[in-house]
Amino acid sequence: MVGLDRRLRTTDCRQVTTSTGSSEVWQARIGVELAAELRADARVLGLDGRTEMVRAALRLLHQRAAEERMARVVDDFYEGRTPPLPVGVRRAPPRAGSEPDAAA
Question: What is the pTM of this model?
Fold first, then answer.
């Protein structure tokens, strides 16, 4: 599917997605400086090539979104109150100069 998406930017953005039925190809253009940094990061992490790098990044993005969704569910459940700490976890002592926690 090829189309122009004017919602994301003030300049035209060409969106290209190719689907083979069981997978999709996503593309993004990045600057040369970021590309060099990402290649160095990939070496540190033992990732081989762009495909592994993009898959790892997308997995992290998905994981972060799942964590955010879970945090929002907890916030909604407790309706602004401070949720209890997990069993076996103690509240940290207040730091010098900080106000005591009203929910403690």
Answer: 0.60
